[in-house]
Amino acid sequence: MSKSATKVLQALERVGGFASAQELHLVLKRNQESIGLTTVYRTLQNLVNEKSVDILRKDDGEAIYRLCGDSHHHHLVCKNCGKTVEIEGGAIEKWAQKSGEENGFREIGHTAEIFGLCSEC
Amino acid sequence: MSKSATKVLQALERVGGFASAQELHLVLKRNQESIGLTTVYRTLQNLVNEKSVDILRKDDGEAIYRLCGDSHHHHLVCKNCGKTVEIEGGAIEKWAQKSGEENGFREIGHTAEIFGLCSEC
DNA sequence: ATGGAAATGACAATCATTTCCATTCTTGGT
DNA sequence: ACCAAGAATGGAAATGATTGTCATTTCCAT
C-alpha cells in the first residue's frame, strides 16, 4: 500500500485543497504516473481510515478529499458568474466546535459555504 | 405537481425523520399509493427548492430528506448513526453576512453543517 | 531463489439519481 | 360539455461515482 499512497498524497499536495478521486486520478495521469482508478479509490479509503486524509461530500454527493492539517478555509461563491473568494472562517470554527461539544459530540468537523451576487453581477 | 407533493409529504410525516427517496417510494408503494420513483425524486427536488424539505447526505453519499420547520437553522449530524440535532446559528449568520459584504457581494446566503460522533457512537 | 501475503489494475457489477419520451391528466377558452 | 396546449407522470434506459472480482505483479523474509 506504500507506493500508491505516496503518489496519492503527492497529488493531494499538488492540488492543495479538496479534490475528488477522479480528479486525483487525472492529475496523476497527467504527471506520467501510472496508477489505476481503483487503486486511487482504495488508497484514499485507507488514508481516510488512518486519518491522514479528510473526506467530505459535495452537494451532489460526490466525495472530495484533502490532506488533514491543510489550512482550513471556506468559499464565497457568486451565484451568477461563479467567481470564488477564499475566506478565513475563524468565527465558524469556534461556533462548530462549541455547538458540537454542547451536544456531546466528538471529532467535530463542519462544512460551510457562502453564496451571493458579486459586485460585477 | 400537487397530488404527488401531497403524497410525498404524507410519507415524510409517516416516517417522522430522515428518509431517502428510495425509502419514501417504498413506503408509498406499501400504502397502495401509486407513484413512480421518478416522480418521487422530482417532487422532492421541488419541495427542497421551495424550502419545505431539508436535504442532506449520508456518509455513503445517498441523499436523505425530511420535513423542515420554517425557522432557519443548521444541523449537527452524527457521522456514524445519523442522529441529528438542530442548531441555532447566530454566529454563522453574522459571519456569512460580514464576509460577503467585505467582498462586495449582495443577496448573501449560506449553507453550513456540523458533523462528528455523538455520545453513543 | 522461493513461497506466500499484500498490492495493483482492468473490467464488470452496483446503486442512486437523471434523462428521455410516450402517455395521461388539467385547464382555460369556446 | 368539448378540445387543444401544456404540465405532470412513470417506466425504461442512461449516467456517473464507487465497489467488487480476480488474475497478475511486487515485496520481503527466509
Helix count from the secondary structure assignment of chain A = 4
Overall geometry of chain A? flat
Instruction: Give the N-terminus to C-terminus distance of chain A in angstroms.
Output: 48 Å
The ordered H/E elements of chain A are: HEHHEEEEHE
Determine the structural class of chain A based on helices, strands and strand pairing: alpha+beta
Which band does the percent of strand residues of chain A land in?
25-35%
Lateral strand order in the biggest sheet of chain A: 1-3-2
Task: Provide the gyration radius of chain A in Å.
Answer: 16 Å
Largest protein-protein interface: A-B, 34 and 34 residues
**Arithmetic mean pLDDT of chain A:** 86
Oligomer status:
homodimer
Beta strands of chain A, count: 6
Low-pLDDT segments of chain A = none
Largest sheet of chain A: 3 strands, antiparallel
Short description:
The structure is a homodimer of 121-residue chains. Helices cover 41% and strands 27% of the residues of chain A. Chain A has helices at 2-15, 21-30, 37-49, 90-102; strands at residues 19-20, 53-57, 63-67, 74-78, 84-87, 106-117.
Features:
alpha+beta; 4 helices; DNA-binding
Please characterize this protein's 3D structure.
2 copies of one chain form a homodimer. Chain A is of the alpha+beta class and 121 residues long. Helices cover 41% and strands 27% of the residues of chain A. Chain A is built from 4 helices and 6 strands; from the N terminus they run H-E-H-H-E-E-E-E-H-E. In chain A, the strands form 2 sheets. In chain A, strands 1-3-2 form a 3-stranded antiparallel beta sheet. A 3-stranded mixed beta sheet of chain A has the order 5-4-6, covered by helices on one side. In chain A, a hairpin with a 5-residue loop joins strand 2 and strand 3 (63-67). Chain A is flat. The interface between A and B is medium-sized, with 34 and 34 residues. Chain A binds a DNA duplex (30 and 30 nucleotides) through residues 1-4, 20-22, 34-39, 41-42, 60-63.
